[in-house]
Design brief:
- The strands form two sheets. The chain has a three-stranded parallel β-sheet, sandwiched between helices. A two-stranded antiparallel sheet has the order 2-3.
- The termini are close together.
- It is an alpha/beta fold.
- Strand 2 (25-26) and strand 3 (29-30) form a beta hairpin.
- Helices cover 20% and strands 23% of the residues.
């Protein structure tokens, strides 16, 4: 079964004082790396945000910082797998 993964890795981090949420670490691993590990079986990984990850498709929501619904929409526009 082929499936694509959308990982939301953007935002302003305003509730964290501007901290980049994707780079926060727990037990030595960033939140982004943990999310990417969780989707290693995906045919394609689509990251919505500014992260640069080899092999992943990186997109931005329009307008920038429009929120999670817009981010999911931007990611869905890149999905090609049936799931």
């Amino acid at each position: 079964m082929q499936w694509d993964a959308i990982v939301l890795a953007g935002g302003r981090g305003s509730r964290l004082g501007g901290v980049d949420k994707a780079s926060l670490e727990i037990d030595g691993a960033t939140l982004l790396s943990r999310a990417l590990t969780a989707v290693t079986g995906a045919s394609r990984t689509i990251i919505v945000g500014e992260a640069e990850v080899p092999g992943a498709i990186v997109v931005q929501e329009v307008p920038r910082f429009a929120g999670p619904a817009a981010a999911v929409g931007a990611g869905l526009a890149e999905v090609t797998a049936p799931y």
